[in-house]
Amino acid sequence: MEFPSKLIENAVGELAKLPGIGKKTALRLALHLLKAETETTSNLAEALAKMRFDITYCQTCHNISDTEQCSICANKLRDHATVCVVSDIRDVIAIENTGQYQGTYHVLGGVISPIEGIGPGDLHIDTLLERVTAPGSEVQEVILAISPTMEGDTTAFYLSRKLRDQEGVNISTIARGIPVGGELEYADEITLGRSIVERQRQAR
Protein backbone atom coordinates (compact mmCIF):
# COMPACT_ATOMS: atom_id res chain seq x y z
CA MET A 1 0.00 0.00 0.00
CA GLU A 2 1.46 3.32 -1.13
CA PHE A 3 1.03 6.42 1.05
CA PRO A 4 1.30 10.09 0.05
CA SER A 5 2.92 10.92 3.39
CA LYS A 6 5.39 9.17 5.67
CA LEU A 7 3.46 10.54 8.64
CA ILE A 8 0.25 8.89 7.41
CA GLU A 9 2.15 5.67 6.78
CA ASN A 10 3.50 5.68 10.33
CA ALA A 11 0.05 6.37 11.79
CA VAL A 12 -1.52 3.58 9.72
CA GLY A 13 1.24 1.21 10.76
CA GLU A 14 0.61 1.87 14.46
CA LEU A 15 -3.20 1.65 14.16
CA ALA A 16 -2.91 -1.61 12.22
CA LYS A 17 -1.16 -3.17 15.24
CA LEU A 18 -4.46 -3.04 17.15
CA PRO A 19 -6.45 -6.31 17.26
CA GLY A 20 -9.04 -6.59 14.52
CA ILE A 21 -7.69 -3.57 12.62
CA GLY A 22 -6.34 -4.19 9.13
CA LYS A 23 -4.40 -1.77 6.95
CA LYS A 24 -7.53 -0.49 5.12
CA THR A 25 -9.42 0.16 8.36
CA ALA A 26 -6.32 1.78 9.85
CA LEU A 27 -6.09 4.08 6.83
CA ARG A 28 -9.76 5.09 7.21
CA LEU A 29 -9.20 5.86 10.89
CA ALA A 30 -6.04 7.85 10.18
CA LEU A 31 -7.74 9.92 7.47
CA HIS A 32 -10.74 10.50 9.75
CA LEU A 33 -8.47 11.81 12.50
CA LEU A 34 -6.63 13.96 9.98
CA LYS A 35 -9.89 15.61 8.89
CA ALA A 36 -11.32 15.91 12.39
CA GLU A 37 -11.00 18.97 14.59
CA THR A 38 -7.53 19.34 16.07
CA GLU A 39 -9.08 19.13 19.55
CA THR A 40 -10.61 15.72 18.73
CA THR A 41 -7.25 14.22 17.80
CA SER A 42 -5.52 15.86 20.77
CA ASN A 43 -8.17 14.58 23.19
CA LEU A 44 -7.84 11.05 21.83
CA ALA A 45 -4.05 11.12 22.11
CA GLU A 46 -4.24 12.52 25.65
CA ALA A 47 -6.86 9.95 26.74
CA LEU A 48 -4.77 7.06 25.39
CA ALA A 49 -1.60 8.37 27.04
CA LYS A 50 -3.35 8.83 30.41
CA MET A 51 -4.89 5.35 30.14
CA ARG A 52 -1.50 3.79 29.45
CA PHE A 53 0.56 5.61 32.03
CA ASP A 54 -1.87 6.61 34.80
CA ILE A 55 -4.06 3.53 35.23
CA THR A 56 -3.06 1.26 38.08
CA TYR A 57 -4.29 -2.08 39.38
CA CYS A 58 -6.29 -2.72 42.52
CA GLN A 59 -4.04 -4.04 45.29
CA THR A 60 -6.84 -6.31 46.48
CA CYS A 61 -8.35 -7.87 43.36
CA HIS A 62 -6.01 -6.79 40.50
CA ASN A 63 -8.82 -5.12 38.57
CA ILE A 64 -7.91 -1.96 36.66
CA SER A 65 -8.34 1.12 38.79
CA ASP A 66 -7.58 4.82 39.05
CA THR A 67 -6.52 4.37 42.69
CA GLU A 68 -4.86 1.72 44.85
CA GLN A 69 -8.27 0.13 45.49
CA CYS A 70 -10.84 -0.24 42.73
CA SER A 71 -14.38 1.13 43.03
CA ILE A 72 -15.81 -2.38 43.52
CA CYS A 73 -13.53 -3.34 46.42
CA ALA A 74 -14.03 0.10 47.99
CA ASN A 75 -17.83 -0.14 47.77
CA LYS A 76 -19.16 -1.09 51.21
CA LEU A 77 -22.52 -2.02 49.68
CA ARG A 78 -20.96 -4.92 47.79
CA ASP A 79 -21.01 -8.42 49.29
CA HIS A 80 -17.41 -8.81 50.44
CA ALA A 81 -18.11 -12.35 51.67
CA THR A 82 -18.30 -13.50 48.05
CA VAL A 83 -15.33 -13.43 45.67
CA CYS A 84 -15.78 -14.18 41.97
CA VAL A 85 -12.53 -15.43 40.44
CA VAL A 86 -12.04 -14.58 36.76
CA SER A 87 -9.09 -14.91 34.43
CA ASP A 88 -9.26 -11.51 32.78
CA ILE A 89 -10.42 -7.94 33.39
CA ARG A 90 -12.77 -8.26 30.42
CA ASP A 91 -14.64 -10.96 32.37
CA VAL A 92 -15.23 -8.49 35.22
CA ILE A 93 -16.77 -6.06 32.75
CA ALA A 94 -18.92 -8.81 31.20
CA ILE A 95 -20.27 -10.00 34.57
CA GLU A 96 -20.86 -6.45 35.81
CA ASN A 97 -22.92 -5.75 32.69
CA THR A 98 -25.34 -8.53 33.66
CA GLY A 99 -26.38 -6.66 36.81
CA GLN A 100 -26.81 -10.04 38.52
CA TYR A 101 -23.76 -10.06 40.79
CA GLN A 102 -23.10 -7.87 43.81
CA GLY A 103 -19.99 -9.50 45.29
CA THR A 104 -16.32 -8.73 44.71
CA TYR A 105 -13.79 -10.11 42.23
CA HIS A 106 -10.31 -11.51 41.93
CA VAL A 107 -8.55 -11.25 38.56
CA LEU A 108 -6.00 -14.01 37.97
CA GLY A 109 -4.40 -12.35 34.96
CA GLY A 110 -4.70 -15.45 32.77
CA VAL A 111 -5.09 -19.21 33.04
CA ILE A 112 -2.69 -22.08 33.60
CA SER A 113 -1.32 -23.13 30.22
CA PRO A 114 1.76 -25.39 30.17
CA ILE A 115 1.94 -25.12 26.38
CA GLU A 116 2.41 -21.35 26.66
CA GLY A 117 4.66 -21.70 29.68
CA ILE A 118 2.13 -20.18 32.10
CA GLY A 119 2.13 -21.84 35.50
CA PRO A 120 0.38 -21.05 38.81
CA GLY A 121 3.27 -18.81 39.83
CA ASP A 122 2.61 -16.54 36.85
CA LEU A 123 -0.95 -15.78 37.99
CA HIS A 124 -2.42 -13.87 40.94
CA ILE A 125 -3.18 -17.07 42.83
CA ASP A 126 -1.10 -16.40 45.94
CA THR A 127 -2.96 -13.15 46.64
CA LEU A 128 -6.28 -14.99 46.26
CA LEU A 129 -5.21 -17.58 48.81
CA GLU A 130 -4.09 -14.78 51.12
CA ARG A 131 -7.50 -13.09 50.84
CA VAL A 132 -9.28 -16.31 51.74
CA THR A 133 -6.96 -17.58 54.48
CA ALA A 134 -5.98 -14.30 56.16
CA PRO A 135 -6.97 -14.03 59.86
CA GLY A 136 -10.33 -12.31 60.10
CA SER A 137 -11.11 -12.88 56.42
CA GLU A 138 -14.79 -12.36 55.68
CA VAL A 139 -14.75 -14.50 52.53
CA GLN A 140 -17.39 -17.25 52.72
CA GLU A 141 -17.75 -18.20 49.06
CA VAL A 142 -15.36 -18.33 46.12
CA ILE A 143 -17.02 -18.50 42.70
CA LEU A 144 -14.81 -19.93 39.96
CA ALA A 145 -16.05 -18.01 36.92
CA ILE A 146 -13.40 -19.15 34.47
CA SER A 147 -14.09 -19.83 30.80
CA PRO A 148 -14.79 -23.57 30.30
CA THR A 149 -11.85 -24.22 28.01
CA MET A 150 -9.25 -26.91 28.65
CA GLU A 151 -6.90 -24.36 30.24
CA GLY A 152 -9.77 -22.77 32.17
CA ASP A 153 -10.88 -26.11 33.59
CA THR A 154 -7.29 -26.91 34.56
CA THR A 155 -7.06 -23.59 36.40
CA ALA A 156 -10.42 -24.10 38.14
CA PHE A 157 -9.38 -27.60 39.22
CA TYR A 158 -6.09 -26.31 40.60
CA LEU A 159 -7.84 -23.55 42.56
CA SER A 160 -10.49 -25.89 43.94
CA ARG A 161 -7.76 -28.21 45.22
CA LYS A 162 -6.02 -25.28 46.89
CA LEU A 163 -9.19 -23.94 48.49
CA ARG A 164 -11.23 -27.03 49.33
CA ASP A 165 -9.76 -27.54 52.81
CA GLN A 166 -10.38 -23.96 53.89
CA GLU A 167 -12.87 -24.10 56.76
CA GLY A 168 -16.06 -22.08 56.29
CA VAL A 169 -15.44 -21.26 52.62
CA ASN A 170 -17.71 -22.71 49.95
CA ILE A 171 -16.43 -23.18 46.40
CA SER A 172 -18.84 -22.89 43.51
CA THR A 173 -18.61 -22.74 39.73
CA ILE A 174 -20.79 -20.89 37.28
CA ALA A 175 -23.55 -23.02 35.75
CA ARG A 176 -22.76 -24.57 32.39
CA GLY A 177 -25.06 -22.29 30.49
CA ILE A 178 -21.74 -21.12 29.09
CA PRO A 179 -20.84 -23.55 26.28
CA VAL A 180 -17.80 -25.74 26.78
CA GLY A 181 -14.84 -24.14 25.03
CA GLY A 182 -16.52 -20.72 25.11
CA GLU A 183 -15.20 -17.42 26.42
CA LEU A 184 -17.09 -15.45 29.08
CA GLU A 185 -16.67 -12.11 27.37
CA TYR A 186 -18.57 -13.36 24.30
CA ALA A 187 -21.52 -14.82 26.21
CA ASP A 188 -24.77 -12.88 26.07
CA GLU A 189 -25.65 -11.04 29.27
CA ILE A 190 -28.76 -13.11 30.08
CA THR A 191 -26.91 -16.43 29.82
CA LEU A 192 -23.93 -15.12 31.76
CA GLY A 193 -26.16 -13.59 34.43
CA ARG A 194 -28.07 -16.83 34.91
CA SER A 195 -24.86 -18.83 35.10
CA ILE A 196 -23.78 -16.65 38.04
CA VAL A 197 -27.14 -16.85 39.81
CA GLU A 198 -27.41 -20.62 39.27
CA ARG A 199 -23.81 -21.38 40.18
CA GLN A 200 -23.08 -24.85 41.50
CA ARG A 201 -21.38 -25.58 44.79
CA GLN A 202 -18.43 -27.94 44.41
CA ALA A 203 -18.11 -31.04 46.54
CA ARG A 204 -15.12 -31.07 48.84
Estimate percent helicity.
40-55%
Give me the secondary-structure category: alpha/beta
Morphology: elongated
How many helical stretches?
Answer: 8
Biggest pleated-sheet summary: 5 strands, mixed
Reading the helices and strands in chain order gives: HHHEEHEHEHEHEHE
The pLDDT mean sits at 89
The side-by-side strand order for the widest beta sheet comes to: 4-3-5-6-7
- How far apart the termini lie comes to 60 Å
Uncertain ranges:
none
* Beta-strand fraction estimate: 5-15%
**Alpha-carbon Rg, integer:** 21 Å
* Number of extended strands: 7
Family: Belongs to the RecR family.
Function: May play a role in DNA repair. It seems to be involved in an RecBC-independent recombinational process of DNA repair. It may act with RecF and RecO.
Keywords: DNA damage, DNA recombination, DNA repair, Metal-binding, Zinc, Zinc-finger
Protein name: Recombination protein RecR
Structural topology:
Blueprint: H1 6-15, H2 23-35, H3 38-54, E1 56-57, E2 64-65, H4 71-74, E3 79-86, H5 89-96, E4 103-107, H6 125-133, E5 141-144, H7 150-163, E6 170-173, H8 189-197, E7 200-201
Parallel strand pairs: 3-4, 3-5, 5-6
Antiparallel strand pairs: 1-2, 6-7
Helix pairs in contact: 1-2
Describe this structure in words.
The structure is a single chain. The protein is built from 8 helices and 7 strands. The strands form 2 sheets. Strands 4-3-5-6-7 form a 5-stranded mixed beta sheet. Strands 1-2 form a two-stranded antiparallel ribbon. It is an alpha/beta fold and 204 residues long. The longest helix is centred in the N-terminal third of the chain and has 17 residues. Helix 1 packs across helix 2. The mean pLDDT is 89. Belongs to the RecR family.
